[in-house]
Write a structure and sequence with these properties.
This protein has 113 residues and is mainly β. Helix content is 0%, strand content 50%. The protein has a six-stranded mixed beta sheet with strand order 2-10-9-4-5-6, with no helix packed on it. Strands 1-3-8-7 form a four-stranded antiparallel beta sheet, with no helix packed on it.
Length: 113
């Protein structure tokens, strides 16, 4: 059974940092490309960052230079380090195994201005 469990969300002031994690189980994690998405209230879910099985990364323009995606295949976890947070980064953050329907349950990130 495939499971993705996000953690690490919370409340942070604008300009602060937060790291969210996504632990995967039930899959051969190392062979999958992984993505972080987010969904703000009243908005569509959007792609934030991707990391391939080989470690290549790409980012949405609105987080470039502020967010870093990484992975640890030894513990089946993908991370999103978020720096210089802005109020518009407030959203529920989800991880996903790319090109599948497997999503985590999401973790709330709230940035106060």
């Amino acid at each position: 059974q495939v499971q993705l469990v996000e953690s690490g969300g919370g409340l942070v002031q604008a300009g602060g940092s937060l790291r969210v994690s996504c632990a995967a189980s039930g899959i051969i994690f190392s062979i999958h490309d992984m993505g972080w998405y987010r969904q703000a209230p009243g908005k569509q879910r959007e792609l934030v960052a991707v990391i391939t099985s080989g470690g290549s990364t790409r980012y949405a323009d609105f987080v470039k230079g502020r967010f870093t995606i990484s992975r640890n295949n030894a513990n089946n976890t993908v991370y999103l380090q978020m720096n210089s947070l802005k109020s518009e980064d407030t959203a529920v953050y989800y991880c996903r195994i790319l090109i599948t329907t497997y999503w985590g349950q999401g973790t709330q990130v709230t940035v106060s201005s």
